[in-house]
Amino acid sequence: MSGMQDMPSIATPHHGRRILLVAAVIVLAVIAVVLIGEHHLKGMLVRVVSSRTGRAISIDGEVEAHLLSRHPSVSAREVTVGDPPWMPPGVTARAGRVLVLLEWQLSVPPLGVRRLEIDGAKLRLVRDAEGRANWYLSEQGAGGGPPLIHSLSIPDASVEVHDAPRHLEFTGTVAAGDAPAEGGAGPLHAEAAGQLNGRPVVLHLLADPLAEVGRDRPYHFRLDERSGATHLQGQGYLEHPFDFRQLQVTFQIRGPDMGDLYFAVGLKMPQTGAFRMSGKLERSGMRFSYTDLRASSGESDIGGRVSFGPGSPTEGQLTSDRLRLRDMGARAAGHAEAEAPALRIPDAPWPVAGLRKSNALVKVHVRELEIGPLVLGDASARVRIRDGVLSVAALKAKVAGGNLTGSARLDAAHAAPRGEVDVLVTDAQIDQVMGAKGSAAGLSGFLSLRAQLRGSGDSWHAMAATADGTVTAVIPRGTVRAALAEAASLELAGAVGLMTKSQKETLVRCAVGSFDAHEGVFAARTLVVDTDKSLITATGDVHMDTESLDFTMRGHPKAATLALRSAVAIKGTLRHPRFSLAGGGTAAETGVAAALGVTLAPVAAVLAFVNPGLAHDADCAALLGSAPAADPRQTESPAK
After folding, report:
1. What is the pLDDT of residue 5?
2. Alpha carbons 30 and 69: distance in angstroms, whole number
3. Do residues 462 and 493 both lie within one domain?
4. Residue 613: strand, helix, or coil
5. Which terminus of the chain has a lower count of CB atoms within 10 Å, N or C?
6. According to the model, what pLDDT value does residue 445 have?
7. Are 170 and 160 in contact (CB under 8 A)?
């Protein structure tokens, strides 16, 4: 009985109908050959194929057909295939010779492709910005792909690829065919060589033997691509041969510059130094998903998942243990000079062209984000790109022991991009923010800062040079080197202390700096530092187009002292400030109350703008209480 289970079962009615249908088709084919004759097949073949594909087909050479055979065959010479009706007029393919070797099968259609040979092929493959391609079977897509082919030979085909959505431009040769193997058909080999996006490229593909292909099992392949020094390796499979709508690939990439990925796969990435990347690509229909992404360059890393498809935004979630901005850009890639730039604020243009074409919503979390000397911890944000507008919402981070929150917006839909930023920093430790400079000055304490700015331009510097808005910083308590404070008050004791590098500290009761920005000029609205020995005030502005400084600082001792009768001038630039004594003045004779009357009128509103609680801080409240009554018209909130 057990042996009977291995025997073929009796055909079902469904199988019987299939056999009858196949037999009928065979009989009709034989009748067609007898009545029409093989020499009339050329015209009929052209008409049938043109009708089924909607393309202009021409055969300028001979056509040979051998249908009454165990393995029927059709060959044609000088074949031209035009573009489909959904594309502009053109030619998709030309071939010097096409041979199709068929085999009878008990299925529909009754003939399968046993072998396909194409000699002297020239292919021009185009996909437009809307995603329509001339190699598709219909305007909506390639469908399930071509029929199963069990043997293939395409030697040295000349190929052009113009793929707008994938940013791929290829010109070169492609060869594909079965590799000979002892005892049967070997694996499929394919090789491409030429120029990809302007760089030399070589690609090798090794896949399962075509002789063993079947719709009911996956079709596996491996690929190896080299574009310059960038090396891509991948392995994966098609769920159903040769239907590329269901695809899974695991890949690894390494190279000298992540920006070179554009020349290898058409992805526009930032420039970096040497990098490694790995991940998994899964395609389902027209939806592409990248998972298990891992990338590293220098001391930076990033990973996560990203998915995209037509009619919906790119969605993703990216995480990083450490991300340093200096690991990205032309300098990291070795394409820029090593000397420091003249400007403090970067003037490298933003990639606004990419923003205008993108639609994305990505959540980002970075455990440690380095922006120059500033280090942000546990930084997170929600980034959206839509209609050329980049929005950063729910921005949160730890900075120098304090907290940073805010939002930003960049509208790149205009010829000159427009940007806005609203950032609040609370309780940041000054010595950590300023680093070595803070240590040299003996600065310590806690800093709160609020910036509301808007501007236009294609770089950070261009935005700053056109900025309007308000920037305010407050130090409600802290310390500073006593010699520095006394020198700022123009006391001779302070000058002596600086020369002897005295480390004695003095208390900073409250310090406030508020700037009103208009067309890139940041004018000091309030600049005051209240120490236990003196009151220091300053006036002036910063011109962000040239980053030039023009400030005058005056000290007002709280007790009689031997003082210089001069002010301190601060000139130069943000990168290279210069300090000098200004001309004669009456700094030592100016009373504290008079100075407060000039500088503190808007401070209450300024403190509330940064943090309403600062107005009730004991030290800042004492400073406010010592000022003459302010004009109510001057207390309007700078946030308005």
Report:
1. 35
2. 10
3. no
4. helix
5. N
6. 82
7. yes
Choice between 475 and 248, residue whose per-residue pLDDT is larger: 248
In a domain, 393, yes or no: yes
| Domain final residue, candidates 443, 466, 489 | 466
This prediction's pTM? 0.76
Strands (E) in 329-477, as ranges, are 360-371, 374-386, 389-399, 402-411, 418-429, 444-456, 468-475
Q: Per-residue pLDDT averaged across 281-302, rounded?
A: 94
- Measured between alpha carbons, how far is residue 569 from residues 118, 130, 553, 582, 589 in Å? 82, 61, 6, 5, 18
Answer yes or no: do 461 and 496 share one domain. no
Characterize the bridge pairing of strands 374-386 and 360-371.
Answer: antiparallel
For residue 180, the 8-state DSSP code is E
CA distance 492 to 500: 13
Q: Is residue 169 included in any domain, yes or no?
A: no
What is the DSSP code (8-state) at residue 8? P
Residue 328, pLDDT above cutoff 90 = no
- β 152-163/534-543 pair status: unpaired
473/405 same-domain check = no
What percent of the chain is predicted at pLDDT more than 90? 43
| Domain co-membership, 605 together with 517 | yes
* Alpha-carbon gap, residue 41 to 45, rounded angstroms: 6
> Mean pLDDT over residues 113-128, rounded?
95
Enumerate long-range contacts of 192-195, CB under 8 Å, 24 or more apart: 192/159, 194/159, 194/170, 195/169, 195/170, 195/171
Q: How far apart are CA 404 and CA 135, in angstroms?
A: 52
One domain for residues 372 and 480: no
Our count of domains for the chain comes to: 2
- What is the rounded distance in angstroms from the CA atom of residue 176 to the CA atom of residue 187? 11
User: What are the phi and psi torsion angles at 553 (to 5°)?
Assistant: -110, 135
Instruction: Please report which helix (H) or strand (E) contains residue 92, including its range.
Output: strand 91-104
DSSP symbol at 259? G
131-145, 332-346, 418-432: which is most confident: 418-432
Structural domain range at position 569: 467-634
Q: What are 200's two structure tokens?
A: 């030399």
Q: Do residues 455 and 465 touch, judged by C-beta distance below 8 A?
A: yes
Check: CB of residue 95 under 8 Å from CB of residue 120: yes
Give me the DSSP letters along 447-480.
EEEEEEEEEESSSHHHHHHT-EEEEEEEESSEEE
Co-location of 383 and 459 in the same domain: yes
How do beta strands 418-429 and 444-456 pair?
antiparallel
- The pLDDT assigned to 598 comes to 47
Indicate if 590 and 501 belong to the same structural domain.
yes
Tell me whether residue 625 is in a domain: yes
530 within domain boundaries? yes
Question: Do 385 and 479 share a domain, yes or no?
Answer: no
Q: Compute the distance between CA of residue 443 and CA of residue 531 in angstroms, rounded to an integer.
A: 12
